[in-house]
Amino acid sequence: MTKIENYIDGKFLPPENNLYLDNFDPSTASVYSQIPDSNANDVEKAIHVAEKAFPAWANARPEFRARILFRISELIDQNLEMLAKAESIDQGKPISLARSVDIPRASSNFYFFASGAMQFSSESHNVPGGAVNYTLRQPIGIVGCISPWNLPLYLFTWKIAPALAAGNCVIA
């Protein structure tokens, strides 16, 4: 049976407590893999790695970030069948739906926001009395992301791709 591990600092690592949860295929109610039952120490490891990586990513040129996001989109497209099968098993949904909706939309999210990485946007607002308020979009630091159960890959990419494009976060 496949054991999925945490991906931290470019390496697959077992959870510190070495505990796993059964991962069920909802269409058959059978266990098809095990996933880490990670704890706060595992999260702290990921945060520490992200804190080290964040300055370089936040200060990377938009063109560099865009190339990375375009490449992720390409890799999703190249692995459409494998990802559709995984999404189908994980969600208990027809593979045709994962193949035609979920995975292509995940790719589209990275592609769209890769293009957006190349655009600079700020806003200014006149305030009565002669003042001006500026809105600058700047990296904020380490973030956590929880992906919903119903469209995990597609909705995760909808959250993470814009943050990565803007240099607002890193994936540890």
Description:
This protein has 172 residues and is an alpha+beta fold. It is 50% helix and 19% strand. It has five helices and seven strands; from the N terminus they run E-E-E-E-E-H-H-H-H-E-E-H. The strands form three sheets. It has a three-stranded mixed sheet, covered by helices on one side. It has a two-stranded antiparallel ribbon with strand order 2-3. Helix 2 (62-78) packs antiparallel against helix 4 (95-117) and helix 3 (80-91) packs across helix 4 (95-117).
Helix and strand layout, with pairings?
Blueprint: E1 2-3, E2 6-8, E3 11-13, E4 20-25, E5 30-36, H1 40-58, H2 62-78, H3 80-91, H4 95-117, E6 122-127, E7 131-136, H5 152-166
Parallel strand pairs: 1-5
Antiparallel strand pairs: 2-3, 4-5, 6-7
Helix pairs in contact: 2-4, 2-5, 3-4, 4-5
Secondary structure: number of strands: 7
The arrangement of helices and strands along the chain is EEEEEHHHHEEH
Please give the radius of gyration in angstroms: 19 Å
Strand order of the largest sheet: 1-5-4
Q: In this structure, how is the largest beta sheet organized?
A: 3 strands, mixed
Instruction: State the end-to-end CA separation.
Output: 26 Å
- Average pLDDT over all residues: 89
Tag the structure with descriptive keywords.
single chain; about 170 residues; alpha+beta; three-stranded mixed beta sheet; two-stranded antiparallel ribbon; 5 helices; about 20% strand; globular
